[in-house]
Recover the amino acids of this structure.
């Protein structure tokens, strides 16, 4: 199964043109092969440092623990073509020759686990190194690996074989190789950050595994020849022209971390992780007049434990509908989380003349004047992509600035109507809170606002059903989900109820390829703000 994911992920050009091989061990461990020379990237200085001379190097592996191994196109001696660098970071010509010949590739998980393949198209060519000696990977007699990769743990091993058509990706499990499920994709490169982060290149395009299917990352550059992923989510790409790109897994695979519709409940839409009620909290009518469908906070705030909040400088989008009962002169604190030290927390604030994004003494204060009054609902959105913070009101950008934030975990606490230092500064109502581990674009924020601003709103199941479309239906090679709410969760299930595909929608109209769906009847389910809408989909071949 292959799905098209029409994202707007933040791919950035990374330093280092002309590379022929890349290896990413983490967000701070990166090495390349350029003109037969091994270079590592110094993130402190922003420069590459040669650690070998030009000597026919054609492969490199780098791990998060700093283990760097270089592969040469010719043998140093009859039993080895591999060098292991003895320092972290590596130093010019400070290496040891290690015993072993890997003709195809080398991949490094740690100082005590290295894997690679050797020889041509012949079975039993996968080897592993335990830091002392090489041995054949058990069960490899059934596979001829053109490339073998490992990531996350020593159990997360994948390979691509020499097949030039059809599925050529294999997964290793306790001594047994098997073809990856539900795939006809023929790949030319593969990388694995861990069991949940499997990426491949086919036809110069980037794919990743999600919901048991290959998903096309449509926003990635084309003409790709190499991909390298790390367990921390860092992803590096190399094009045929030698240009390197960088991104993170969170950008490629957006997830609604938490969603609260406050429909007479403090729980999230899954019925768990409730905000703590107190004397100042109650339920009131929402922006559409529905009774007991928004949370009112009277100068007390409320908190909840939410697992998986975006920390560090990871991308994020936080949105909510807000109505102030009383407009404070400077502070009307909407939310906060993190630790109360400079740049280590974040929060949102609304004023009579602006929308602020707090980083704790490293703030984005509204420079564009907007008028916010009491008794009026506003859709407020905050985004951060790791380098740039933005605020929006009713889908329109209010202010933006470059920010170097490092949000620290404070027992996974998330607070509404209160600052991280327990400042109580909000008297009003909130509704439809969403926390997403991706920085939405201005177009996506505007779409999210416009779809949610209708009188009936997406909380109305009947309206959600009437709005979203599945077309064409019956479908053959693809179908489109049209008029969906940005941020909705799409699920596709077969007639047995088995989930076969899921993703977060980041455009109102998205295309899902179905060339590898089995012929039959499926249920397409859309979830948003507590509403669940379903459509029947027929796949005909």
């Amino acid at each position: 199964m292959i799905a098209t994911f029409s994202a707007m992920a933040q791919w950035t050009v990374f330093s280092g043109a002309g590379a022929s091989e890349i290896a990413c061990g983490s967000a701070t461990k990166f090495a390349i092969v350029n003109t037969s020379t091994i270079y590592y990237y110094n993130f402190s200085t922003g420069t590459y440092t040669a650690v070998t001379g030009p000597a026919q190097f054609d492969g490199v592996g780098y791990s998060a623990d700093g283990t760097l191994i270089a592969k040469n196109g010719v043998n140093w001696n009859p039993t080895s073509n591999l060098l292991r660098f003895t320092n972290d970071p590596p130093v010019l010509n400070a290496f040891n020759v290690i015993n072993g010949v890997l003709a195809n590739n080398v991949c490094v998980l740690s100082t005590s686990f290295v894997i690679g393949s050797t020889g041509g198209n012949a079975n039993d060519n996968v080897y592993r190194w335990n830091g002392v000696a090489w041995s054949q990977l058990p069960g490899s007699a059934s596979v001829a690996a053109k490339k073998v990769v490992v990531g996350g743990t020593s159990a997360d091993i994948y390979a691509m074989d020499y097949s030039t058509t059809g599925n050529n990706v294999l997964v290793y499990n306790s001594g047994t190789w098997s073809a990856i499920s539900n795939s006809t994709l023929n790949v030319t490169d593969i990388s694995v950050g861990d069991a949940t982060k499997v990426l491949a290149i086919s036809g110069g395009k980037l794919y990743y595994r999600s919901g048991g299917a290959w998903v096309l990352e449509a926003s990635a550059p084309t003409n790709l020849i190499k991909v390298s992923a790390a367990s921390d989510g860092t992803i590096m790409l190399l094009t045929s022209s030698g240009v390197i790109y960088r991104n993170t897994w969170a950008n490629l695979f957006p997830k609604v971390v938490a969603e609260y519709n406050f429909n007479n409940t403090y729980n999230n839409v899954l019925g768990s992780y409730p905000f703590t009620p107190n004397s100042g909290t109650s339920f009131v009518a929402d922006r559409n007049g529905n009774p007991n469908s928004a949370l009112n906070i009277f100068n007390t705030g409320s908190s909840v434990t939410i697992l998986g909040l975006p920390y560090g400088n990871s991308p994020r989008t936080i949105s909510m509908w807000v109505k102030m009962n009383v407009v404070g002169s400077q502070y009307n604190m909407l939310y906060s989380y993190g630790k109360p030290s400079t740049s280590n927390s974040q929060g949102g604030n609304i004023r009579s003349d602006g929308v602020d994004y707090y980083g704790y003494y490293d703030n984005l204060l509204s420079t564009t004047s907007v008028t916010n009054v009491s008794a009026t609902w506003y859709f407020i959105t905050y985004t951060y992509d790791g380098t740039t913070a933005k605020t929006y009101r009713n889908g329109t950008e209010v202010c933006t600035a470059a920010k170097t934030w490092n949000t620290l975990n404070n027992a996974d606490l998330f607070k509404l109507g209160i600052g991280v230092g327990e400042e109580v500064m909000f008297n009003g109502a909130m509704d439809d809170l969403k926390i997403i581990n991706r920085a939405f674009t201005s177009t996506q924020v505007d779409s999210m606002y416009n779809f949610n601003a209708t009188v009936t709103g997406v909380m109305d199941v009947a309206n959600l059903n009437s709005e979203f479309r599945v077309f064409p239906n019956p479908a053959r090679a693809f179908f489109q989900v049209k008029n969906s709410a940005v941020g909705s969760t799409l699920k596709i299930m077969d007639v047995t109820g088995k989930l076969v595909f899921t993703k977060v929608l980041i455009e109102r109209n998205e295309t899902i390829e179905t060339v590898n769906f089995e012929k039959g009847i499926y249920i397409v389910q859309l979830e948003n703000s507590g509403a669940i809408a379903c459509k029947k989909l027929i796949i005909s071949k």
Observations:
- The radius of gyration is 26 Å.
- The chain is about 5% helix and 45% strand.
